[in-house]
Design goal:
The protein is an all-alpha fold. The chain has 5 helices and no strands. Helix 3 packs across helix 4 and helix 4 packs antiparallel against helix 5.
Length: about 160
């Protein structure tokens, strides 16, 4: 403080040194402030880019999780199974309807087959006619008719025609 109030004791080089120190200190503080602002700006830009990258990878991870949970393969298989079941039901209903329309003629054809074969297959023909008279669906006839056909095939191979 003596230096500021007693200006006669100071020489011009002392004043120059004094003001140089003050200006240097001010420039140092302003320079440090500018460098800190510049670093802060760079840090913000870096954080913004990292945030964008993190957001992108978080979205990518979320997409992969949703995709694995959704599992399109199982979804498509379930749809295909449902469609095939529906088709099979429609087909079965169609055959049952056609069989119902032709039931009497089918029974007559079985009786005629039984007469032509001299009642060799009477047991099998009777079981088919019973199933037809019970009005069960077409799946019930399948085993009876299959047995009759396999027996006719065996007998025809042996020469019992």
């Amino acid at each position: 403080m003596n230096i500021i109030f007693f200006d006669k004791a100071l020489t011009s080089s002392d004043w120059l040194n004094f003001w140089g120190n003050i200006i240097g200190s001010i420039l140092g503080v302003v320079g440090a402030f500018c460098v800190m602002l510049w670093q802060l700006k760079r840090e913000r830009e870096k954080n913004r880019k990292e945030k964008i990258d993190n957001t992108f990878f978080n979205l990518l991870t979320l997409f992969q999780n949703v995709k694995s949970e959704f599992d399109t393969y199982r979804f498509i298989k379930a749809i295909e199974t449902e469609i095939n079941t529906h088709k099979n039901l429609k087909r079965l209903n169609y055959y049952n309807n056609e069989l119902s329309k032709r039931r009497e003629q089918f029974i007559k054809d079985i009786d005629e087959f039984d007469k032509l074969t001299d009642s060799i297959y009477k047991v099998y023909c009777s079981s088919i006619k019973e199933a037809l008279n019970m009005d069960i669906d077409i799946g019930g006839y399948h085993t009876h008719i299959k047995r009759l056909l396999s027996l006719v095939e065996k007998n025809s191979q042996r020469g019992f025609n």
